[in-house]
Amino acid sequence: MNIFTNRYDGRRLKTISPYVKIIPYIMTKRSDAHVFSKMTIPTDTINEYIKEKQKQGFKITYLHLFIAVFVRVIAQRPQLNRFVMNNRLYARNRIWISLTVKRTLKDYGEETTMKFTFTGHENIYEVAEIIEKSIAESIKVGTNNKVDRIADRLMSLPNIIVKILIGTLKQMDKLNILPSFIIEASPFHTTLFFTYLKSIKLDYVYHHIYDFGNTGMFISLGKEKKVPVVENDEVKIRNVCEIGAAIDERICDGLYFANSLKLVRKYIDNPYLLEEKLEEVVQDVE
Question: What positions does the domain 2-oxoacid dehydrogenase acyltransferase catalytic occupy (predicted)?
Fold first, then answer.
């Protein structure tokens, strides 16, 4: 592998236009390149679908459904799976989604982060199985996953050593020589970071994207609530939940992102489309 063009988690894009190539030199940090978007999602169809699946013996939740939607959309819209590292644009070679959960719903309850790996071919049942298996292994109080173990080892060291090590890891990341086991474990090296605020009855937020790692998107799903909606020039009260999205605008342009959101809406409006496996995952340019 040529470390100057490829990394463990992606390959450098060479055939993109000079304008796209220069943008990361102008906006050097993800925090420079935030754009935000909100989606209002009617929930009646989702609730009916989840109830139907439960009657059929399938445990499908909002978490499963929305992650399945984003996995499917990313598989069909590969620019969403790009990332910027050291002012260069890369295509990620897998779909990774990170999620933070609390082991107990208490103020001082332990928190942990997990990362799910997908190929993009998965149907909603396979997505649900991957999520539930990972959560079951990570949520037990007193257990440690890979993220916890690395953090424990780092924070057992003196403060100055931690600073030096984190700085060294950042430089290794820029040089494409960060060890694969760290990339595999790191929730910050991911396609999308998802926060499931609906589970704790909080509204959506616009969450910042981390400068550490290479996360391109941060999606927040808020609680279900009633809001006034205009339909056929009439105001009606509908059950909805809202999504707050923060995206690194360097990975794709506004039109591409807007069309991707339309595809998100298509799958949310008709979750049955997610029950079939995706035969062909669209590949990014060279």
Answer: 219-274
